[in-house]
Structure formats: structure tokens, C-alpha cells
Design a protein that fits this description.
Chain lengths: 239, 119
């Protein structure tokens, strides 16, 4: 009887849609209970919890995603919605035109070089290095870049997500330690390094930080698409 | 709210079609974001329902990454093979990028500020 219900529920979108919302709420609850400590990032907690649930119930990711795709789909309109904070803070963006251009260029190059350099020092294979090149770019663009330069798009997708989580967890306290007070600078740095997941975190700092992070996602996607093949050629990286 | 959602979806749709037609190396929703921004700048009004819907959606942006995030589960073996190199690149590399971007941008703002005061 119980297994019958489980078999029915496990295959329906309803269960995994509900579980996704529940782990999100649980992540926030744990975060608040911890006194808002950065290490207990709500998204990181929610994803960890969800992975445990999927492993314990032996649920294939494809089954889970059939339910969760409705939430995943909303990423599209949410990305479009980033036009609103950008519109509201456009004056500040115009004032900071030169700092944005210079910050974006150095940030984008640093993201590529630091990933390749660190992985190389620790014995990463050439294919891993190439897969890491676009790790700070939003997933669909990153996978496209990986394919073009000879990395593994699926490995890239994982590194993009984990990069975003790492940025969301650690960037705000790092920025405080560096005594960065300008929310525009905070948002830009988080957006360049940690794309959409970082942007979700930046929006919690302020709408201004969110606007700059959203701007950074788009600009960094374009710039890395142009820079990645060039830098790979300069560094003589081949899979 | 339905009107606002329709606007967001419509701009996403236009963005996706534009990317398909032009072969631009950016995702459709990012193009949709730019186009919606341009049309807001052109009309110079932000309808309240659009603002409210966008703010609701963005305040839960992190929820929307959970399904993709759980996808990590599929690549356990890929990660296990070279985990140290990968973790270092993802965590340290990201922190270095955050720090460099923030310090450089802050530096350029300070220089601009001083030049304006001197001039």
C-alpha cells in the first residue's frame, strides 16, 4: 500500500515540485536559526538537502527534474526581470561607466586565469582546465564556450553552479573584509565572479547591488565569449 | 500580475528568436533583458504591476537555481577524479575574482573622484 503511493507520487511532478519549495524554505529556516552566518547559505543548504533526499530515495535526477522544471523555467522571465533594477539605477550605471568597463575587463581575465592557474598547479588535466575557463559565466553561455574551446560542457555546467554557490556564500564577507562599502562595486564583483547565483545573493544586499550584478552577468557572458578562445590560444592549451 | 508576466515572457520570446536569427553568443533571456530595459528607457515609465512582479520574482531568484544545482548529483564521478584542482579553481579562483574586480573598480572610482576634485 505505502509503496504503491510512493511509486505513484515519485513519478508525478507534484512531489518534486513540493520538495523543491520545501528544501528552499528549510534552507532559509536553518539560515535564520544559525543567526544569519554566511556559511549557512540558504541555497547551498537547500541543494545539499535535496541531493541527500534524492540519494536516499534513489531518485534519478531526470525524474526529479520532471517536477522541478516548472521552477527552473522561471529563470528565463527572472533574467528578463533584471531589466527593472537596471532601469531604476541607470543613472548610477552611467556615472560609473569607466569603472564598470575597467572592472569588468580585469575581473573577466582574472576569472579565467585564476581558474586555469590554480587547477594547473594542483595537477588538473588539460580537459579539466579547458572546462574551467568559462566557470564564472551564466550556464547556457558557459556550456557553449566550453564546447568551442574543447572542454567538457557537462563538467563546465557543474563548475558554473558550484562557482555560483561559492561566490554567494563567501563573497559578501570577503567584500566587507576588503572594506568595500559601495553596493554598486559589491554587485559588480559578485556578478562578474558568480553570475546568477551570486546575483540572487547581491539582490539580498540591495536592489542597487542586484542591478549591477545583473548587468555584470550579461557583460561578462559577452566578454568571456570573445576572450576565452583568445586566451586558450595564447596559453597553448589543447585537450 | 498576469499582464506583467506576459510582458516578461514576451521579451524572453523576442530575445530567444533574436538569438536564433542572429547567432549572437548570449542566451535569449539576456537579450530579452536588454530589450525590456531599452523599451523602458524609451517610454520612460515603469508600470507598478511590472515593478511589483519583477521584484517578487527577483526576491526569490535563489529558489530558481535549486533544480539546476541539484544536477551536480549526476557528475559525482567527474568531480571525484580531480576534485582538489576543481575545488581550488572554483572556490579560491572565485574569491580572487571577486577581490580583484572590487578593488580595481573601487580604485578607478577613487582616481576619477580625485581627478574631478583637482580639475
Amino acid at each position: 500500500m505505502l509503496t504503491g503511493i510512493w511509486v505513484y507520487l515519485a513519478a508525478s511532478p507534484l512531489l518534486w515540485l513540493t520538495v523543491t519549495l520545501a528544501v528552499y524554505l528549510a534552507g532559509h529556516w536553518l539560515f535564520r536559526r544559525s543567526g544569519g552566518r554566511a556559511f549557512f547559505n540558504p541555497v547551498a543548504l537547500a541543494i545539499t538537502l535535496l541531493v541527500l533526499i534524492l540519494l536516499l530515495t534513489g531518485t534519478p535526477y531526470s525524474t526529479y527534474f520532471k517536477g522541478a522544471q516548472f521552477i527552473h523555467f522561471l529563470l528565463g522571465p527572472a533574467t528578463v526581470a533584471l531589466a527593472i533594477p537596471l532601469y531604476l539605477h541607470w543613472e548610477r550605471v552611467q556615472q560609473l561607466f569607466l569603472p564598470i568597463v575597467v572592472g569588468l575587463l580585469t575581473g573577466s581575465i582574472t576569472a579565467i586565469l585564476s581558474a586555469i592557474g590554480l587547477a594547473w598547479l594542483l595537477g588538473g588535466s588539460p580537459r579539466t582546465l579547458l572546462s574551467l575557463v568559462p566557470k564564472s559565466v551564466t550556464t547556457p553561455v558557459a556550456m557553449g564556450i566550453a564546447e568551442k574551446i574543447g572542454g567538457l560542457p557537462s563538467l563546465t555546467a557543474v563548475t558554473v553552479i558550484l562557482t555560483g554557490v561559492a561566490g554567494a556564500v563567501a563573497a559578501p564577507s570577503l567584500l566587507n573584509r576588503l572594506r568595500i562599502q559601495d553596493d554598486a562595486v559589491k554587485g559588480m564583483a559578485i556578478g562578474v565572479a558568480a553570475h546568477g547565483i551570486g546575483t540572487a545573493r547581491a539582490l539580498q544586499i540591495s536592489s542597487l547591488a542586484g542591478a549591477f550584478a545583473g548587468l555584470a552577468i550579461g557583460l561578462n557572458a559577452l566578454l568571456t565569449t570573445l576572450l576565452a578562445p583568445l586566451m586558450v590560444r595564447l596559453l597553448h592549451l589543447t585537450p | 500580475m498576469i499582464g506583467a508576466l506576459t510582458i516578461l515572457l514576451l521579451f524572453q520570446l523576442i530575445g530567444e528568436v533574436a538569438v536564433q536569427l542572429s547567432g549572437l553568443p548570449v542566451p535569449g533571456p539576456v537579450v530579452g533583458m536588454v530589450l525590456l530595459f531599452l523599451s523602458l528607457r524609451w517610454r520612460k515609465v515603469l508600470p507598478d504591476p511590472l515593478r511589483a512582479t519583477a521584484e517578487t520574482l527577483l526576491s526569490h531568484l535563489s529558489l530558481l537555481f535549486i533544480p539546476a544545482g541539484a544536477g551536480v548529483i549526476q557528475y559525482g564521478t567527474l568531480l571525484a577524479d580531480e576534485w582538489l584542482a576543481l575545488i581550488a579553481a572554483m572556490v579560491l579562483g572565485t574569491l580572487i575574482t571577486v577581490a580583484v574586480t572590487a578593488l580595481v573598480m573601487q580604485g578607478v572610482i577613487l582616481i576619477q573622484h580625485r581627478m574631478r576634485q583637482d580639475g
